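tokens incoming
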């Protein structure tokens, strides 16, 4: 758990029924191309995208940020995952936190790593986050406020509390929910779509067999 209502994980986490139920996950952002079981009564946003420095992940930021924010405002819990939970999903979570706080990309990443040490966007994604931290993040922040109103969350305080002493505030990492260590390799992906699935499909990719 990175913030109340926001979780970061990997492909295994996204089909772990016990863990999803325990954390009351209602929404999932999937950023990969692998076949995936789509679970009943969970709302999905799928962003097919390869984990390569050249991939344009930045163009999906606004869509993902709006999806996550709307989920949280309605009392839901959103899991953001890719294959390994290291690069693509971390990048989207960092972008979201940059928008709902006024913290820099590096501050947000440092805070996330206190909970999930493997979090590590590839160099191209880091560059896109740095670019996003200019005017683009402020524009999306204004968009969220215009569309959803003033945020009821204390996200900046939550994230600062994760930073080492002297950089934010008292640490809240003790007892925090730990993300699982990645168990699958990243694969590539194509076009985003949003859907609600009413049936459970069992589809395990060959790479996990």
């Amino acid at each position: 758990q990175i913030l109340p209502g926001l979780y970061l994980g990997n492909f295994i986490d996204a089909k772990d029924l016990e863990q999803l139920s325990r954390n009351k996950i209602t929404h999932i952002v999937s950023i990969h191309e692998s076949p995936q079981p789509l679970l009943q009564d969970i709302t999905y946003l799928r962003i097919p995208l390869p984990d390569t420095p050249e991939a344009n992940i930045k163009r999906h930021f606004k869509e993902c940020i709006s999806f996550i924010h709307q989920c949280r405002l309605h009392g839901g819990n959103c899991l953001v995952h890719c294959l390994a939970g290291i690069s693509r999903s971390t990048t989207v979570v960092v972008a979201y936190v940059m928008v709902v706080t006024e913290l820099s990309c590096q501050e947000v990443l440092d805070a996330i790593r206190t909970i999930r040490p493997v979090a590590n966007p590839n160099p191209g994604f880091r560059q896109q986050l740095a670019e996003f931290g200019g005017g683009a993040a402020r524009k999306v922040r204004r968009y969220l406020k215009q569309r959803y109103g003033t945020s009821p969350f204390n996200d900046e305080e939550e994230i600062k509390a994760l930073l080492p002493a002297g950089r934010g505030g008292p640490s809240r990492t003790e007892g925090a929910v730990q993300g699982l260590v990645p168990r699958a390799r990243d694969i590539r992906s194509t076009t985003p779509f949003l859907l609600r699935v009413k049936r459970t499909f069992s589809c395990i990719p060959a790479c996990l067999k």
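note: The chain is about 35% helix and 10% strand.
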